[in-house]
Structure formats: C-alpha cells, structure tokens
Amino acid sequence: MGKQEIVVNIGKPQxxxxxxxxxxxYSIERAGQKKMSYAGGVDAVQALQLxxxxxxxxxxxxxKKSGVPxxxxxxxxxxxxxxxx
Length: 85
Description:
It is elongated and about 45 Å long. The protein contains one helix and four strands. It has one helix spanning 44-66, and strands spanning 6-10, 14-15, 22-30, 33-41. Strands 1, 2, 3 and 4 form a four-stranded antiparallel β-sheet that branches.
C-alpha cells in the first residue's frame, strides 16, 4: 500500500447550548472517508486538550486497523504529533 495523506482539522472551541461547558469539534479525513467528532470540557482549553487526545486515539486505532504506520512527517518513524494515552 502506498502513502496516504490524512488531514486533521480542529475547530474553534464553542459553548454547548446549555452555556456552561465547551466542546471542540474536529474531523479526520483519510482514504476518501471523513470522521467528525468532538470533545467536551469545562472550559475552551480543556475541550481543545481533550480533542487532541481523542485525535491521537483515533489515529492510533486507524494505524492498528490498517497495519500501516501513521507519522507526522513522511521521513520520521512513528509519532502522529497527538497524544494517544
């Protein structure tokens, strides 16, 4: 299998409709498929931090499922740039 580009987009944290907590939307595009999700937090910073962790977990899952390593830069070994623990 050849190299494949994965595009991660992270949206601006926003207030939930209840006006108390925040959520941060994100999407991951790969192989013509787009996964959209979000993470919620007590404030905008926590929502962003948790979104980045969820992205890392999603990328680790895609990597395990496909058996193809995912890297931030094509000439590096491992590491997506997002935490996944």
